[in-house]
Amino acid sequence: MQQGVENADCLSLAAGLVDPQTLPVELVKEAADQILTPETGPFALQYGTTTGSDGLRDVFKDYLSELEDGSPLAASLPAGQIMLTTGSQQLLALVSQAIFNPGDICLVAAPTYFVYLGVLDGVGAQTIPVHTDGDGMCPQALDEKLAELAEAGQLHRVKMVYVVSYHDNPAGVSVSNERRPQLVSTVKKWSQDQQIFLLEDAAYRELHYDGPRQRSLWSYDDSYSRDEDQTVILSQTFSKSFSPGIRVGVGVLPRQLLKPVADLKGNEDFGSTHLSQNIVASVLQSGAYAKHVQRLIDSYREKRDAMLAAAEEFFTEIPGVSWLHPQGGLYVWMTLPDSVPTGFSSRLFEQATSVDKVMYVPGELCYPSSWEERPTNQMRLSYGVLSPADLRESMRRLAAAVNTVLAESAS
Amino acid sequence: MQQGVENADCLSLAAGLVDPQTLPVELVKEAADQILTPETGPFALQYGTTTGSDGLRDVFKDYLSELEDGSPLAASLPAGQIMLTTGSQQLLALVSQAIFNPGDICLVAAPTYFVYLGVLDGVGAQTIPVHTDGDGMCPQALDEKLAELAEAGQLHRVKMVYVVSYHDNPAGVSVSNERRPQLVSTVKKWSQDQQIFLLEDAAYRELHYDGPRQRSLWSYDDSYSRDEDQTVILSQTFSKSFSPGIRVGVGVLPRQLLKPVADLKGNEDFGSTHLSQNIVASVLQSGAYAKHVQRLIDSYREKRDAMLAAAEEFFTEIPGVSWLHPQGGLYVWMTLPDSVPTGFSSRLFEQATSVDKVMYVPGELCYPSSWEERPTNQMRLSYGVLSPADLRESMRRLAAAVNTVLAESAS
Lengths: 411, 411
Description:
- The structure is a homodimer of 411-residue chains.
- Chain A is an alpha/beta fold and 411 residues long.
- Chain A has 14 helices and 15 strands.
- In chain A, the strands form four sheets. Chain A has a seven-stranded mixed β-sheet with strand order 2-10-9-8-7-3-4, sandwiched between helices.
């Protein structure tokens, strides 16, 4: 991506950053001022605990109850099963270190969050894709894949299923309401002899623009209401809904994972930034956070609409192009004709970045499969950073690049 | 330690915490207010880079030059070899993950920082103690140990030597000026065929109360001035000298470690708290940090003096007791008669925590050797948290407990 980054006049649809315009500068300043008094300041500037501020964990528990309206699990969750991390990335990394031995298997949606594929690679896990469509990972496909692995004597190596459950990165797809309990029960069905965890990455949960809110996959794991081992790891973050730079992620952990993950985190850093945790607790408790999220939603909805309108305007005429209409998150997933590869070494990537001055993420980066099996004609287009006007302009440029490549291949 | 923690009237000489009274609440508030403006706030609240804020790395480089007066290495150090982490703990953990395979060997001072022993255990490294006295790790003993390992065909497994170079945890000992270059050259001497790193943990560097300041071991690694592999990893932190709760550690990495460590950190968390890094850069640049450190030094010197005076007052009469006089840091290291074990299950520990109401860290926790080989009659006494008056009272209680145990064993 160096090409695009070094190119100042290149408009980037590639970065997964949040919009700098809507970062809560004033809110954080107010919260910091409130915390940094002679009474409460020393506490925030001292070491916290490895698993994080009790204050924030208590407040988060209440907040989770709201998000899960209807589910009793959040209300009865012991705050000790909540862990605060350096962004949700650290939670993903720590649970992966705790769960996988080299050669173990993780089943993942396809496409999926490519940074997590790197984490899995780092712990030596094999990744196996599970068929995924506009309703998210397909429970029947998951069941069949697990049956296949059992048949092959490989079930004991399967340690986790990874799902980005809301408006996922890269495709903007959410798991449908119908599939949520099905995914949980399918994982439990194949966990009779040994534990398979379901890692629910809910990073984009709160960036939800249309339609009714959904309960988490976690809320369907009724083992949390019983005195037994639990299946779903819920990972959330304040990076997308508030600020990535304060690095506050939060996870709900099955109780059998608490000690191994806390031990790893103890060795890793003794705990994440206590000051940031106090800031988040303060805005959550005051209600300022909820108001901020509502403003964010309004702003990102407008940007999403701008990108979809521009897609309509510039791509409808190009045969063989389609794209998904996300109800939240930061990404539009676009598929080009088979004849137009999008990878870093493709003609399109060169034309887009060097001539038309627009950057995107090649879709092939987001697949767990071997390179030969990956679709090569897709793109992740982020509307997080650019203004509506720049989004339109970048989509115009991208369409121009696609048209150039199509014209070349036709000639 | 649960005993002491649950005991509200127990005075703790155990916690390695910094003094809450001198935490820079007002300074952090001012810095946060300066940063959280519409112009600069969005930058601080956005993702930074994995290796940390360029601003802080540049300012730290200048600060390191000051600390190393006389050494040209800091002035010519590329800022890209500086990495910002979640406290120095994360730096220690990441370099250990990058360097060690299970079964590899780390040579360490004895006693040494016991938390790092846990990190080494976590990556499967063996630890081998090197003779250490009041001038720090003994270079000749290091040389002999390495010769022994070479003789035994084990040199290829030795990957690192770990030294807390200033006012160490637990003994308050600094490596003498004479030994600093000797330790570096000894490690280099045995690194001809394969790399041995020297990890210099300089966490207590700035808490220096008496005598001339010392250059780091790192400053003697002249490979930093040449186009070749480098030996010393320098680890520093703002936890002791500023605030643990903002979690800002900083390391200087040999260039051949940059990519492996940055890759691990990328998987782990994408980078530590950007807001905290901006706060530290602001106070370093304004000079407020230097003034704060001077105030800290004055305050801790007074507490150290109070503890040493109380040791004099209450322990001089007890035969067979001795203690070191630290010139900095947070700890006094005390040795009792051989007949008074200090461990968690000892009579002294019970008497001290349950009857006399005072807590300490048993010295035997701080040794890498097997349990049978560890001295059992030492204690780490921290003067970080308590006031001078409470320090005197806790030393009075501790002496009372020791006297009780001695009287029992005499009867």
